[in-house]
Design a protein that fits this description.
Number of domains: 2
Distance between the termini: 61 Å
Mean pLDDT: 88
Helix content: 25-40%
Number of strands: 5
Number of helices: 7
CATH superfamily of the largest domain: Glutaredoxin
Structural class: alpha+beta
CATH architecture of the largest domain: 3-Layer(aba) Sandwich
């Protein structure tokens, strides 16, 4: 008797249009002089792709690998290692709840539960309208202001479960109080 191999991960369909168009490809190539190898450009390039696409598709990974002259599996390894990267579309605003010991002791579990309840989604899911996604991270490096959540890049400190509804309803909940770095998107 022989066993039949089953391909459980069929190749996803590709879009007729490239994910990494000429403009984004030029921005990625502009990073080459900053690094000793093209492989070192994987992380900033993935950030750029996710910023543009709200996720990193298989097609994008293959295109980036070709641009950087790497195997697609090398790019996938990076995407699958970091929880920051999403292989499916994420919301316009990503709510990140800290789950470090400091935040946990100060009530992050209840804050996460409140986020799930208000948004109506679980971890690593996106609301039906595409407005919000929810995730947790091990540490957001704001231990002295625990518990904290980020909405995109804006930190909300000492959050209580009863604050969550107000924070998420605020249309400026992700507006930074300081100028954003142009490390990735300022490359010309």
């Amino acid at each position: 008797m022989s066993w039949k191999a089953i391909d459980r991960k069929a190749a996803p369909e590709k879009s007729a249009n490239p994910v990494i168009g000429p403009e984004l490809a030029d921005k990625i190539r502009a990073l080459f002089p900053r690094y000793e190898t093209k492989r070192a450009v994987v992380l900033p390039a993935l950030h750029m792709i996710q910023q543009q696409e709200r996720g990193i598709s298989w097609q994008a990974m293959e295109e980036l690998a070709a641009l950087l002259e790497l195997n697609a599996s090398d790019v996938f390894d990076v995407v699958s290692f970091y929880t920051y990267f999403w292989t499916h579309p994420r919301g316009e605003k990503v709510v990140t709840v800290c789950r470090s010991i400091s935040c946990e002791v100060m009530g992050a579990g209840a804050v996460l539960d409140a986020c799930k309840r208000v948004l109506g989604i679980g971890e690593h899911e996106t609301t039906a309208d595409g407005k919000f996604s929810l995730q947790t991270e091990e540490c957001l490096a704001v231990c002295d202001h625990a518990p904290c959540i980020y909405v995109n890049e804006k930190c909300h400190k000492r959050v209580k479960p009863e604050d969550v509804k107000r924070i998420l309803a605020d249309p400026n909940n992700d507006r930074l109080d300081v100028e954003r770095s142009t490390l990735f998107d300022g490359v010309r």
